Amino acid sequence: MSSRAIVVDAPGSHRLAVGERPGPGAGEVVVRVAAAGICMSDREVHDGHRDPGYVRYPLTPGHEWAGTVEAAGPGVDPALVGRRTVAEGFRTCGTCARCRCGETSLCAGPYAETGFTHPGGFADHVVVPARLLHPLPDDADLRAAALLEPAAVAAAAVRAGAPEPGERIAVVGAGTLGLLAVQLVSGYSPGELTVIDPRLERAGLAVRLGASEARSPEGSRRARGRFDLVIETAGAPSTAADATLLARRGGRVVLTGMFAPGATGIDPVHLSLSQLTVRSVFGAPSAAWSFAVRAFTTGHLDPAALITHEFPLERYADALALVGGGDPTTGKVLLRP
Description:
Layout: E1 2-10, E2 13-20, E3 28-38, H1 40-47, E4 64-72, E5 84-87, H2 97-100, E6 125-129, E7 133-135, H3 142-145, H4 148-161, E8 168-172, H5 176-186, E9 192-196, H6 200-208, E10 213-215, H7 217-220, E11 227-232, H8 239-246, E12 247-255, H9 268-274, E13 277-280, H10 286-297, E14 307-311, H11 316-322, E15 332-335
Parallel strand pairs: 8-9, 8-11, 9-10, 11-12, 12-13, 14-15
Antiparallel strand pairs: 1-2, 3-4, 3-6, 3-15, 4-5, 5-7
Helix pairs in contact: 4-5, 4-10
């Protein structure tokens, strides 16, 4: 059986390769990919802007994907074959102190992640360790399930923020992470859920997904010091500092966006005098994956609402061009092998 895959040989150079379907090793499964999401990290991999310690060329990208198990290797339960599934991206060691505490996103082993150091989901098939699978119901929408990787990151942020009913909560950024966080936070019955984003189209979608109001960054200046919890998801140069100004004294801030060098720093005087609690999130531990999958399977989380474009593998270049292209009407872009 043949299998196709997008291969980025080096920054700026990609091709559609055709070869034999990969086989599973011991403890592994082969998954037939149904859909794979493209995010800015994938654009960074293609353009060569990702830190060299976090990418290995040549590479098949794709860390957001969902599919169906086609084959199981030695030591894997054969009942998994035919199951719809997603899988954690971090290929953790499972034995270090952080892994044994359940903090798998802080694994002390060498960095390894599907779609960055190992072949990912921009392909007909992907091979992953069976221990990383999160099986889905037989009727799961695999198109929507492709967004469970960013949903797990949003879940990690929400869990770190520990929202309580009736609190005033702000989400900075109405991109994929922000809109998924809005859906998850709404389940905690906040007294106020404000989304801050300069794109009116995205902010409007946030209200339809559960936010009580949307504000522009300029309009949010009047809300400084108002919120019990602020979840930052944008990763823009000023949004980490802005998030700390939005929090009330004694409030909590969770930083989720990926910041580039040179981003505005957090004022330590304000941080100290306001007695803020600041957390950061990079990726998602296993518990956050389980949280996101439960929210999806019970119908509380609707990732499909974020999808605006779908392309076959052959149009990878067209799909990639939309991501980060600046069109505010572009939401989540999928590849459909």
